[in-house]
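Task: sequence design from structure.
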């Protein structure tokens, strides 16, 4: 196994618009597209972290609809930052709906943010995100544990 420098509680959120398109952000750190995500800060719940991260990155207010799953497999959950640091994330992924706000790139963490059709996703997606999206779009009611 590769050297891992840190372990963090991560969050991710699948947000679909009225056309059933998925919201993605182009990350400034690695230049790849991904589902809005981040990590839980000390003293914060996972649901508070989801709401905060989405507001910070997209200017949108959301309501959590469903737990998609919890992801901890190091094969997919280790993120290598450009500075050489490797972090193993245990990520809790949710499905959410927009309740207010106007979409805009609200953070230096993102180069761009927009909705994509599910059959027209960018090719340069972060490696773990297609799994999260596939799980969110499945018809399974129970949460995934991967």
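Answer:
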């Amino acid at each position: 196994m590769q050297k891992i420098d840190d372990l963090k509680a991560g969050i991710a959120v699948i947000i679909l618009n009225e056309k059933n398109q998925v919201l993605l952000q182009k990350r400034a750190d690695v230049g790849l597209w991904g589902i809005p995500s981040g990590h839980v800060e000390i003293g914060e719940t996972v649901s508070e972290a989801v709401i905060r991260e989405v507001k910070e990155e997209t200017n949108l207010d959301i309501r959590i609809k469903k737990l998609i799953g919890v992801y901890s497999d190091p094969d997919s959950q280790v993120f290598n930052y450009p500075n050489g640091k490797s972090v193993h994330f245990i990520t809790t992924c949710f499905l959410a709906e927009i309740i207010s706000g106007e979409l805009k790139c609200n953070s230096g963490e993102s180069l761009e943010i927009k909705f994509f059709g599910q059959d027209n996703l960018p090719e340069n997606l972060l490696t773990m995100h297609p799994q999260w999206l596939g799980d969110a779009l499945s018809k399974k009611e129970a949460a995934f544990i991967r």
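The two ends are 18 Å apart (CA to CA).
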